[in-house]
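Before our next group meeting I need something from you. Please put the record directly below this note.
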Amino acid sequence: MGAVEELRQSVEKVAGSVAAGVVRIGRGPGRGAGVVIADGAVLTNAHNLRGSETTVSFADGRVERGTVAGVDLDSDLAVVHVATAGAPAPEWHEGGVAIGTPVFAVTSPAGAGVRITIGTVSSTGRAFRGPRGRLVPDGIEHTAPLARGSSGSPIVDATGKLLGLSTHRLGDGFYLAIPADTELRGRVDALARGESPSRRYLGLALLPPRAARRLRAAVGLQEREGLLVRAVDGDGPAARAGVRAGDLLVEAGGRTLGSPDDLFAVLGDLADGDALQLRIVRGTDEIEVRVVFAERGGEESGTA
């Protein structure tokens, strides 16, 4: 059997075993995709959702209303409960994924039915930032082309087993996927049970140190290592403590802030009831503010 025929048969197998379980999330070309993971449950990217309900469109033309069961904004994952009516869930791939492994991306672009493209794993262990700025480790980089609105769609191996969940494009023909490993399966099972993780957040949009130095120099202020506050959530803990756009965060809990990950690490170490002391440079003044959080169950994941 020739290579072309083997490839055709692999695509045919993937189409027959996986395509019926790939769905569209929301309406219009700008939303996303998802994949059935169990009877009544669909896995997608958190950034595809707007609120606690969403439209789920199946390959057979059915359109159902789904309810968000659990969401992890920092890892960009969500599980939606919806009537799947027997749509198949792919088996999960067991074992690691190596560079050069063939991958098949299966998605459902708006108005285009199911689309299957072919590529290879071009890199593994790729860290990237989720929608809220936290680092997501161990991403799979692949080259199977994806149309706009394909985030949340599965990549599978030649036997149709789930390798990962595509989350965004890097540009120049490369795409990132969250690996379908044992850790992901545990997190997805928890989300399906309605167990959304809860993490401390400040409610800030931040610029990294390089941008902070450049902007401070542009207005004649002394360079200083830190994170520049670009915007403040008016209902967030930082706003209640008096943090403003334009402030430079230089310390959190006594730790010097050289990157957003330093701040996330400090937030992650806080226990219930702990407040956070922030050292801020505002113009030429240096001040301290004390951020008080609600109970951990009352705080959602946030930018920082």
Q: What stands out?
A: Helices lie at 3-17, 182-192, 209-218, 237-241, 260-269.
